[in-house]
Amino acid sequence: MKARWDIFCSVVDNYGDIGVTWRLARQLVVEHACDVRLWVDDLRAFERMCPQINVQREQQWQEGVDVRHWPAQWLATPSADVVIAAFACQLPPEYMEAMAACERAPLWMNLDYLSAEDWVVGCHRLPSVKFKGVQKYFFFPGFRSGTGGLLREAGLLQQRQAFQQDARAQQQFLQSLGVFPANGARLMSLFAYENAALAGWLDVLATDGRATHLLVPEGRILGDMQRWLGVDRLAAGDIHRRDGLTVQVLPFVRQEQYDRLLWCCEFNAVRGEDSFVRAQWAGRPLLWHIYRQDEDIHLDKLDAFLELYTAALSPAAKAAVVALWQAWNTEGDMAQPWKMLLAHWPEVAAHAETWCLEQGLQADLATALVQFYESWI
Hints:
The protein is an alpha/beta fold. It folds into two domains: about 5-150 and about 360-375, Rossmann fold, CATH 3.40.50; about 155-360, Rossmann fold (3-Layer(aba) Sandwich). It contains 15 helices and 14 strands. The strands form two sheets. An eight-stranded mixed β-sheet has the order 3-4-2-1-5-6-8-7. Strands 11-12-10-9-13-14 form a six-stranded mixed β-sheet. A hairpin with a 2-residue loop joins strand 3 (about 60) and strand 4. The longest helix is centred in the first third of the chain and has 17 residues, at about 15-30. The two termini are about 15 Å apart.
């Protein structure tokens, strides 16, 4: 019989939480023949990346996944064989009682946030708390051997490489989004939280000697972009030009389309967790806007990733990457770090592809979860 999986997603940061759990749910169904229920407390956020979702329905099937609205007033529901609390969300007390009432307790996992910090390897798959005899386990995605790896669908890297070698396919895809970059223009994407450093970066992009076409999916950075452009409002479809920089606002697109957008671009600025991982699978230089946390503990996570990611770079290229990422995440001056990065572009670009292929040698997150369940039973 198929293993029954329940994945609980409490939407905190609009799209990152649901982005990860939606990808995971679909992959468990398609590649591992699992029976998956995805519980989501905010279907409006889900609708942005799955437009066919009916936000009024309590239950519906989408791409083989049993999508359930996670109501404030929980109804009696049998426990699954595997229960995933994504990003440490709290399960409904009634559901926890249902887990405890099972003749055979389910495998209960806390799927934690992605981190490159050293301690993650030591904590991965360790037991956590118990609830009436039901043991919870830590499960950490990660970049090192000994972690749960990263979300990566079967054949993804081969699809990406084929797409990037097909100029016509890229052109057709961009045209489907209304994107027509000038010949020779640097194509970049920007998906970020609010950031006061944006104006300085846009200034240098507009004057760095090469035309840039910047694609900006709808999101929280648009307010800063409006101020720099001096306009009252930005919406999907808007195009503005200043000197050598063209800014184009894109509508929110499905995850598969966003992947291809990243594959088309020479450089991708991303945020949170889901787009961060997808930018790495694009094999192109990237810039991560990490989610801000109290007491700046997010900067420790940033530094841990940078130390791992830049280990194989020359000292000068490493310094350029680190300077750019730190300036972006501390709202510092972006002009000089961007010029430093451009000076080392060939090495940084080659490294992005190498890093991608090295990470692709590890088991993907969905496979690691299934393997843990099979070893647990």
